[in-house]
Amino acid sequence: MQFATAAVTIEQEVARILSTVQEGDVQALLRALLNARSVFVFGAGRVGLAAQAFAMRLAQLGLRCVWVGDITMPPIGPGDLLLVCSGSGETATVRVVAELAVKRGADVATITRDPQASIGRLCRVAVRLGGKTAIGEETVVSQQPLVTLWEQALFLLLDGVVMLLMERLGQTSAAMKQRSMNLE
């Protein structure tokens, strides 16, 4: 296979999986993010990397955002939102964090393939993103290994949410740059 073929395959696969997202789910997530006192974000593995990149963008937008597990993490409580990302909706570490957030009175939102899984049942907001997960069934056929397609689609879905937040908050890239780290 040539690289150009691989690139086109990836583009087509990602476009198919992103087309499974319901606008109403995204709008509900936007409302939850904008209404939260603080947004806590968590995910595991490569899914966690996409979620962590999203947390960075939220902070650059001027929202109070925390990556769960950071040593400077404040307590979570009523008025806060925990956004957890888990393809299967059953990732043990993610489920435990979501359960703790609920016990502390925070709202929980998720992006998952299966909103009816244990994590989704804890959530006030669930965005369904189709595709293959580690323990779930494949709803979008992929030529990529393991759950790469879901991870890519999650990253792009979250980038789309950032664009929508930018519009709602009247933010520009220049304004976000002013809130970006400068110890690089």
Written description of the protein model:
- There is one protein chain.
- With 184 residues, the chain is of the alpha/beta class.
- It has six helices and five strands.
- The chain has a five-stranded parallel beta sheet with strand order 2-1-3-4-5, with helices on both faces.
- Helix 3 links the parallel strand 1 and strand 2 (65-67).
- Helix 1 (3-18) packs across helix 5 (148-169).
- The longest helix is centred in the C-terminal third of the chain and has 22 residues, at 148-169.
Number of domains: 1
What is the average of the pLDDT values?
94
Q: Which class in CATH terms?
A: Alpha Beta
CATH H level: which superfamily?
Glucose-6-phosphate isomerase like protein, domain 1
Low-confidence segments: none
Write a brief caption for the model:
With 184 residues, this protein is α/β, with parallel strands linked by helices. The protein has six helices and five strands; from the N terminus they run H-H-E-H-E-E-H-E-E-H-H.
Give the SSE layout:
Elements: H1 3-18, H2 23-35, E1 39-43, H3 45-60, E2 65-67, E3 81-85, H4 92-103, E4 107-112, E5 125-128, H5 148-169, H6 173-178
Parallel strand pairs: 1-2, 1-3, 3-4, 4-5
Features:
single chain, 184 residues, alpha/beta, Rossmann fold, five-stranded parallel beta sheet, 6 helices, 46% helix, globular
